[in-house]
Fold these 3 entries.
Entry 1:
Amino acid sequence: MNNPNFPKLGPIIIGTSDIEKAKKFYIAVFGLVIESEDKNYVSARGVDGTHIELEEDSENRFPHWAERNIGTYKNSEFQVPDMKLFLETVLKNGGKIISEPVSRPWGDIGAEFTDLDGNIFLVSQK
């Protein structure tokens, strides 16, 4: 069914309490390429073209934005070719591994890690 009113996926938004530290972390860990930035905002692309935005709280945000967007679980799965190398990079740049890599029944390996603000991500290796 092709309905012009169906939503399309926009950027993955990652809340942060320190935009400069987050920018360094995501460039080092995700290989982000910055497209534009402002005082409380960075627009970037991942290596596969995925649009990712890093955002700090500001007067332009919804009420309670920080508590709902910083240090929360991000319902996205990032895929890497080498789990061990990726998680070493996370740790080297200040992130934490909160769920060690495990083999999953459908054939991949999954783990969970956090960034500097405690945002939680799922990562998998096929």
Entry 2:
Amino acid sequence: MQEPKEIPVPKMVACHTMPYRYTVFYCHSQQTENKVFVVSLKGRNGGRVEAVAVCHMDTSKWSSRHASFRVLGIKPGTIPVCHFFKGDNLIYVPLPAHG
């Protein structure tokens, strides 16, 4: 297994699929710091997959009723909240500047 590889991006737009009969995305961005990682995962049967994870470094302005806080048993702004992206979700990032 490999260490997660951080993809340095100054900003991003995340798009999540919504449960409709046809393809609909909910896209959003945040002004606070986020980190994007490529993570190598290995399944029980030995299969491997590359996954994308995002860590929200500052959750202090999130609603205290956000599901992440309930699931993780934490309060807003205490620790980063990280999650994986499903294969049908998208992340848009700016192209690197060429100097």
Entry 3:
Amino acid sequence: MTPEKLAYMANQIAIAFARLPAEEAEAAIAEHIDQFWDPRMRARLLVLAEAPDADLSDRVRGAAALIRRPATA
């Protein structure tokens, strides 16, 4: 999956939680990604979130700190 597609999907999740205050939205975004995303997708999103030029919303960037890190083999 391309970085652009991952960013799009994460930003869509953020839109779904836009009505919540920022802190609650970030927690909800992280919980959703933890529950429904494959560990490889989570890992790629976390790398993407470190790139300053990645097209991620502020709430997705905030949620990145809360997303469960996939185990490394």
